[in-house]
Write a structure and sequence with these properties.
Length: 334
């Protein structure tokens, strides 16, 4: 049975005497470091000499290189790009881990696929926020939090769960929900969204834009209806709050609901084809095929990604840029 943890489940003093090393001050790193510090946790940042390191120094953190931070932290949080983690782990993290340290990942990819194999002498933890760092930070400041998957892969000290919940609490996660999941579950579900759901949505939007413009609709007008107004984002947010069916019932007009019902079974094509596609995506993830593909892509400079980027619709980008200049932002009223 899946366990869910909240503020009341966080042991008192769970991180007393711990120094948390944040490795990487990017999308998640800055937000996590700021939240931990605001919660009274001692934080040191490890980052190479780049603008992220300059930002960490500007934010008032003690900053060193990755090896130095790993050496000084009793809890080491790895917030580096997945493809770069194995090399950095071998060079800068593994030689500096001490027995009894905790090693924490925000995504299970490298551990699940055996690209990193931490020693049994350290606690191995998963704290995987389900939103980018911007929202982790903003919700924390607003006295709330984002949900996260959490798990203990190895408990070397007998304190792994206490440390894990202490981190989740200090990050603001337990204000919302810390949901237990394994490294495998988090990795496979995260990749499934990225390999099936997101391409489905984004490809549909791009193709719809191209076809509507070809049919004679002004680019900005077509874009406004598809996603430029922000309505789609608000609809998906409402679905998260109310459930998919509840959102449709409460926010969609009868005409909209009839349109959804009329095309529900045909929107993705034959049901058997969709089922086969989902199975293919899952098999590709679970077998490790995509993990090997990603590592190979990184080693060769991401040729597939570059080809995809070069083929994106320039007309869509121009319309997006144009529409943004048309839409005014919120104004303050006295």
């Amino acid at each position: 049975m899946t366990r869910v943890f909240y503020d009341e489940d966080v042991p008192g003093g769970a991180l007393d005497g711990e120094r948390v090393a944040i490795l990487g001050y990017g999308i998640q790193g800055r937000a996590q470091a700021l939240n931990l510090r605001d919660s009274g946790v001692e934080v040191i940042v490890g980052n190479r000499a780049d603008p992220y390191r300059a930002q960490a120094e500007h934010d008032g953190f003690a900053v060193t290189d990755l090896a130095g931070a790993a050496r000084q932290g009793s809890v080491v949080v790895v917030l580096l790009p997945d493809e770069a983690q194995p090399g950095i782990y071998a060079e800068s993290i593994a030689p500096n881990l001490a027995p009894g340290n905790a090693l924490v990942f925000a995504h299970g990819f490298t551990v699940h696929h055996g690209l990193i194999e931490p020693p049994d002498s350290v606690d191995l933890l998963l704290v995987a926020p389900r939103m980018p760092g911007k929202y982790l930070r903003q919700r924390f400041v607003d006295q709330w939090g984002v949900p996260a998957f959490v798990g203990v892969h190895n408990d070397a000290t007998g304190r792994a769960w206490s440390r894990l919940l202490g981190l989740a609490g200090a990050l603001g996660i337990t204000r919302c929900a810390a949901i237990e999941a394994s490294f495998a579950e988090e990795t496979e579900l995260d990749h499934f969204s990225e390999h099936f759901t997101y391409p489905l949505i984004f490809r549909a939007l791009e193709d719809a834009f191209d076809l509507l413009v070809a049919a004679g609709y002004p680019p900005e007008v077509a874009l406004m209806e598809l996603h430029g107004s922000g309505e789609l984002g608000e609809v998906l947010s409402a679905a998260a709050r109310e459930g998919l069916t509840g959102m449709i019932s409460s926010h969609a007009s009868p005409a909209c609901q009839v349109g959804i019902a009329h095309h529900w079974n045909s929107a993705l094509g034959p049901a058997a084809d969709v089922e086969d596609r989902i199975k293919q995506v899952l098999d590709n993830i679970r077998s490790g095929h995509f993990a090997r593909h990603l590592v190979a892509q990184e080693a060769n400079g991401y040729p597939e990604l570059k080809t995809w980027q070069s083929n994106r619709s320039s007309a869509l980008e121009r319309a997006e840029s144009s529409l943004r200049t048309w839409l005014r932002g919120p104004t303050r009223r006295e």
